[in-house]
Amino acid sequence: MKRHIFSAIKNDLVRKMILVTGPRQVGKTHLAKMMMPEFTSAQYLNFDVPADADVIRSRSWPLRCELLIFDELHKMHEWKQYLKGVFDGRDQGQAILVTGSARMETFRQAGESLAGRYFHFHLLPFSVRELAGEMSPGEALAQLNTLGGFPEPFLSGSADHAARWRSQYYTDLVREDILEFGRVNELRVMKILLEMLRSRTGSPLSFKAIAEDLQVAPQTVRRYVSILESLYIVFLVRPFHRNVARAILKEPKLYFYDTGLVIGDEGARLENTFAVSLLKHVRFINDTTAKGLLLAYLRTKEGREVDFVLVEGETVRELIEVKTADANPAPALIYFKERFFNTARCVQAVMHLRREQCLSCVEIREAASYLAELDA
User: Which fold has domain 6-122?
Assistant: First the structure.
């Protein structure tokens, strides 16, 4: 199955170097290898393989290689400077594709600049839109809610296999990546934090309250959550406010890239699946255009809340409320639409819905059908 970013990457490879980042085991290597038949000659090199590492260091790949693929290159010392040299010295028309996970995501922060030499793409777990050609939207959403969107557990079709995969996956992340990436000595506290967060998805996150439970400083919790973000385990959705600085100071909501990790009822898992799908939609648009779309949520001091909003610049384009079965328009949707965002599209996405309709300027949509219409 070709991933949603395949065609966009293929088109951009003729223009610039392509960097693809995403969680571990989300399918980056598979995507890269599927690109190889599109070129007359292609070379895949994984820095984790000693023989490939020797080829990378000596730059001894075949002459007239049309596509060079570097995997795990961020583990090489001064990899950005190396890439800059390879890109600047490449043969005319040679395409370069680089894949990596958490470490590669930090390429902007320090060291040799790659400015002007690359396009960046995010590869995230499966979505209803991406699976539309393989199964019905309703079936895709039900399986994503149960198995999560990572390829191996999803394609296994087995809840038992998915649980075994997930246990090993997160054990490895905590033991290896978190320790190496964040230099965190308190692995026990990190494990407890990760377990606590599993039952808090979709709720405003109080770093102070969590810090009290863990008996650590709030700043320590913020640092740990930041590490989990960097490793593509969780992501934060912040409240929208025209003053971005004020929005950052307010409590974010936390979601997992892997819905299968969520502890909660069908509604909690559904909201997490929507969060991942909307994030994927936003990142795909931002990776392929210059729109600068933002995923956020709305909440007033009085407790009125809308699950998600899509913002372009300072303009709210869409308000989205997620429900398992309630087909009555959410009062908060109508409140925000009438008072603040009268030009925005309002959608209430319902998983179990008899029929779609429009009530009080709110589109009551079947959740799976709505997700199938996203861009990614």
Answer: Rossmann fold (3.40.50)
Quickly count helices (H) and strands (E) in the chain: 16, 13
Q: Supply the pTM of this predicted model.
A: 0.93
Concatenated DSSP letters of 4-19: TTHHHHHHHTTTSEEE
Helices 159-172 + 137-147 axis angle, to 10: 50
3-state secondary structure of 235: strand
Residues of the chain within CATH 3.40.50.300 domain(s) are: 6-122
Each residue's pLDDT expressed in tens, for the chain with a length of 376 residues? 889 999 999 999 999 999 999 999 999 999 999 999 999 999 999 999 999 999 999 999 998 899 999 999 988 988 989 999 999 999 888 999 999 876 666 554 544 578 889 999 999 999 999 998 899 999 999 999 999 999 999 999 999 999 999 999 888 877 777 766 555 667 788 888 999 999 999 999 999 999 999 999 999 999 889 888 988 999 999 999 875 455 555 899 999 999 999 999 999 999 999 999 999 999 999 999 988 999 999 988 888 899 999 999 889 999 999 999 999 999 999 999 998 899 999 999 999 999 999 999 999 999 999 999 999 9
Among the listed residues 348, 342, 339, the one whose alpha carbon sits nearest the alpha carbon of residue 367? 348
